[in-house]
What does this fold into?
Amino acid sequence: MLSDEIKSEIHCGISACPTRRCAILEALQIVQRHHGWVSEERLKAVAEFLGLTVEEVDGVATFYNRIYRKPVGRHIIFVCDSVSCWIMGFENILDHIQKRLGISFGETTSDGRFTLLPIQCLGACEQAPAIMIDGQLYGYLDRDKIEAILGGYE
Amino acid sequence: MERPLTKHITIGGDPLNLAEYEKVGGYEACRKSLRTLTPDNILQLVKDSNLRGRGGAGFPTGLKWSSMPSSQNSPRPRYLIADADEMEPGAFKDRILMEGNPHQLIEGLIICAYTVDTEIGYIFIRSEYTLAAERIRKAIGEAYEKGYLGFNIFGSGFNFELRLHVSSGRYICGEGTALANSIEGNRAVPRHKVPRQTESGLWGMPTLLNNVETLCNIPHIINNGSIWFKNLSKCKDGGTKIFGVSGKVKKPGAWELPMGTTIREILEEHAGGMLDGLKFRGTLPGGASTDFLVEQHLDVPMDYDSVQKAGSRFGTGTMIVLDDHTCPVGMVHNLESFFARESCGWCTPCREGLPWTAKVLKAIEDGKGEPGDIEILEFHIRALGPGRTFCALAPGAMEPLRSALKFFREDFDAHIKEKRCPWS
Amino acid sequence: MATIFIDNAPYQVQDGQNLLSACLSLGFNIPYFCWHPAMHAVGACRMCAVKQFRDENDARGSIVMSCMTPAADGTRISIDDNDVREFRAGVIEFLMLNHPHDCPVCDEGGECHLQDMTVMSGHVYRRYRFKKRTYLNQNLGPFINHEMNRCIQCYRCVRFYRDYAGGRDFNVFGIHDRIYFGRCSDGTLENEFSGNLVEVCPTGVFTDKTLRKHYTRKWDMQTAPSICPHCGLGCNIIVGERYGSVRRILNRYNHEVNGYFLCDRGRFGYEFVNGDCRVRQPLVRHTSKSLDVSSLEPIEKKEVLQYLAKMMTSSERVIGLGSPRATLEANFSLRSLVGPENFYVGMSEPELKMVLQIIEILSNGPAYSPSLRDVEQCDAVLILGEDVTNIAPRLALSLRQSVRQKPMEIAERLKIPRWADAAVRQAVQSERGPLFILSPMATKLDDIATKTLLAPPDDIARLGFQIAHEINPEAQPVLDLSENLRELAVSIAAALKQASLPLVVSGTSCGSVPVINAAANVAWALCTQGKKTGLCYTVPECNSLGLGLMGGLNIRDCFEKIMTGSAGTLIILENDLYRRAEAQTIEAVLQKCKNVVVIDHILSRTAREADVVLPSGTFTETTGSLVNSEGRCQRQFRVIPPTGEVQEGHHWLLDIMTSIGRSDVNQISSLESVGELMAKEFPIFKPLVEIAPRADFREFGQKIPRQPHRYSGRTAMLADISVHEPKPPDDPESPLSFSMEGYQGIPPAPLIQRFWTPGWNSCQAVNKFQSEIDGPLVGGDPGRRLIGLLNGNELVFFSEIPQTYEPRDGEWLVVSISNIFGSEELSSLAPAISERVPEPYVGLNPEDANSLGKKDGEKLLLSINGISKSLPVRVITSLQPGIIALPIGLSGLEGIALPAWGKVLENRNG
Ligand SMILES: Cc1cc2nc3c(=O)[nH]c(=O)nc-3n(C[C@H](O)[C@H](O)[C@H](O)COP(=O)(O)O)c2cc1C
Ligand code: SF4
Ligand code: FES
It folds into this structure.
């Protein structure tokens, strides 16, 4: 279930961890980097690799919002829905994205291109409204900018 | 006006690499500390500087450091953590510091580690700070290569390992004890504060936690002394502070200014005042979990005690501005939805009360408020107050609500009476 | 002692507690959820809030959680303050927002801590008007039902399951107001203590699945105090009954024995009582003697007694075979009937030898026999030869707590009070006290062991002897021990010597007297070093030790006597010989006997071959006494009134004596008279008459009713049979009555038939029965230890050291393997348990399996002492080469005493 590459990455990532538990998040992040999300099987494989039970791994995984336990699209759009972006009208941006892509929060486009997720304050309040796609921050948004940005992702 | 923290930061530009950083005096403080100062010397300097924690609670940094148990007979390893989780809505100052000058943070960490005698450090960064993480990773690499991290730093015999821990979301991870649980691979629920983390923190070992901005101040205190540091400030707290403003102002952004600069100055001079056609209605001076201040408070100096006296909290020093065309009920609803979503689910009032609060606010905002809703909100303000919940998240969440009811009560009443949002 | 002020009145409380337990100990009611007296405080639910004041001038005070606040000298609090009352009502309101309010159809209804706390807190009116959240439930296997919508997120389940019981297939998932407790996906909860979730959960999330099959409300259950019959530990239980069938087992708190927790075998093993396996009528073989089952026919009680009287008087000799799963009283009555010279202890030769050896060691040696509570206090443990979890499960739970003792030093250094559970665990991390396990194969405690050694029984004994020698050189050394083992012995000895309360655990499951002796040597050696040392032996059955104390000869002696002497009548009491001797021998013996009478409650293989079967009561229908492995004598009380022809074994024997006109019948006519007679004959049984109030005990002139004050439908229960309400059955043998009339207050501890007090309808009411929180029951815990410390004896170490195990060519050392579900006779008959019983198998080391050409699941023909059986192979990596493991109770080869040497025969396609 886990490729050798993933295993060696996990191995190297956890070398500094004093306990197996403390490697959980890092291991899941590695799996996610390679596969986009953490399937049941991979969760099991990670648990086995770390010598933990699936319950132990999933108990941690389900706590966080950045470990995906369902499939996601090739690109993940985070729309900051926190207060500064709210004041600056993120709802218009969101509305636009939703209409453009035909999906709402938590959904993935049928072509698997985008998944749309809300995110807590991106720490870009001065650039509100802001979104993040695959780790790239976009601020000072308006509808036109969105068009250009989305076009850049295949 | 001196801007020690941001002097070498160009917004939008690349940060200094190690060589460039050294060229402008970087790692001098570190070298001096490890070579010529004793931990006690440094501790005294930090104490004298009146530096207070920039993470939100404003705890005097020197005092916190001195609560680390003495090195003799101490269990090991001892840990140092830089809290770079910064998920408080409205706050973005640590991102600027980390993206803009990662070596400054690393230098602060090494000096701190040497002072409190810890051998392993973590920078706990939120996962959305991808650029900051990248730059820190690179800087850590450079520092290791140069021997500024690792074994026998500056030939002092002092060893320090520094690791970057990228989190996987969740605001609560910024809370110091939840953060420790997160690093350990537990669910990131907070821990009871007895014993203190400095006694039993990460893996039960003595652990010191500081905010990124707090740590970034350290090299400058070493280089210039505590008196210089105190003099940077307009009040008795030492130093400068990165103040930020977001909301409908002309120039949202962040500026390094003396501690004790007034809200008005920050707002009008630096943020350029309100957008045309809008009036200032109120502000959360220290981030999402602080009480609103309003027009009458504009001349309050931004320092811990003054803001507290005015009825709010200094928090992170990054303010969110409410204008007169934005619905305060909607704003508070947005805030409480955030807190409800970020509750860790450990203690009852927060886990159950915040979603209820958010639902009541939503109902009011949607014109479905009912008589008695305000009483329900007031009940929450009491039931989620300090001491009632396990950690400070829920009491923090109640601050904007409490003050909104105080200053904008007529808006709430109007929603309920008119059965609609007057602003939409 | 500390003085605290509660609503301005001073109270004396024990030092070092938290305010919650201090206040509860004082009798105050403070609502709580996440705190548990055994699992302590984490401060999650926020229910136990009180107001604390700095000093007498502080009028404002601040709200604190009583469970997280020390009851330090001078502490001032208010429980009644308005703010704090509002807050507590608010917490309940929060907890009830999403609760389904499905009490009428909830299994917990009427004994629900959430209901109680809701009433106690004063929350009455619902203000929440939004949608409730809902969850999907999981199938957690045959024991536990899951209904997550009722969850109040107190985190008790996960803290019990993981932190306390060491289970790993259960957890908490999710965040904010979507917290989920369960498994990753559907599946049976594997931990042996999962049943405690039923009592640990304060609401109806985890409920007893076996109870659902015949659901009855707490208030409609007739209950009585009893003793679990499913292993030698003698956990105290409460049995619930309605309409003549047993509905469930609950834990009965005994500070010294089981505390708050039972194992799943004990909790769910009861169902056999209601099952088809029972004998409910006297049976007699009509035709001439053959082994044909069909000829056992029902017969009236009166007739069978006449028949027996004739049989007995015409028999020149009557032999009695007792049973380690029958009460002292029943065994002793049999002994009185047949006479001491004709009474045999129903144990096999090796079994009795081991039990007698244990008694000898515990009675005469300097090491004490620890209660389970004592075990929890021990700070270094050596286990010799036992897979404790599968043999004496509840002991394993205590051992899990004992490894937490030593690391408490860390918490103490940090001044963390013990009750601050999360902080203690945080400080201690995975640090554990020393626990060494020497065993023939991997055990379920290996995960917490400092070091394990896999070795055959003789080598376990040898290492034990050497450890003793390392502690005290006067103990015989093992001269030909390998360097590795010697070093291991040195390190184990050192750890034990460093402990302040060391403990040695061993028992009969290795089938080895040398192992038992070696354990004694280690414990005694520690005693000679001035250590208070516990020596804990597991025994196979619930009354093994009691029967051993009575003494007598073993089954083989009995058989010999029958085979060599003249044929007579053999009376077998609650004993299936096929579990203790080889079938061929038994068949010959039964053939030889003129008459075979079996008194039993199940139709065992032995019973099916008897001439007369008399239906005795199970533990739920029997009042009597048992001695557990600690040496504690305890009383169980029947909960089912005598129905039909079923009666206690003791009563059948009494009836037989009456029917043959025995003049001494009065001496055993009541439990008390048996007790007195026993005490006269065996002084060690003197305390027997004190372990529970006498039958004539009355509280305010009244009996203690088995039915609770709210018992419903009593007048109508049997209306389909007769509209006249029958007179409640008498119970002349105990102070308990089969009615709801009587003293409904707190009875003397041995008679506690349920935990229930006003306002406390759930099992949490136990608080009100304790002299202080988590302390002994009011008036002292039930049971008396019969085996004491005989000081002053000169200590003589055992010195017969066995030879090291040498594999034999063409032969295999067959050892026994225990399964918590399956190895014990009675519980295996319970439907829920039987779902967890593995298929029969024979365990093999992987290499051996390989060399025999066997894969997992393939059959292997095993022959021991000329008896052969084909069984599927299970590859067990931890088994040593050359050793085969046979599961007790599953293999069909029960009669063969293990360890034994066996052969693997060529398989004839089977
Ligand atoms: C819910 C919650 C979230 C917090 N998040 C952060 C954070 O993201 N960064 C931070 O530095 N401190 C955060 N804090 C404050 C820390 O717990 C801690 O007080 C601070 O980091 C200490 O550092 P300082 O003394 O340097 O200020 C948070 C506190 C709470 C209650
Ligand atoms: S207040 Fe309670 S539920 Fe909320 S974040 Fe803190 S511990 Fe978790
Ligand atoms: S019992 Fe004290 S917080 Fe739960």
In short: The longest strand of chain A covers residues 75-80. The mean pLDDT of chain A is 95. The pocket of iron/sulfur cluster (ligand 2) is lined by residues B 172, 189-190, 343-347, 350-351, 389-391, 393-394 (CB under 6 Å). The beta strands of chain A are 75-80, 114-119, 131-133, 136-138.
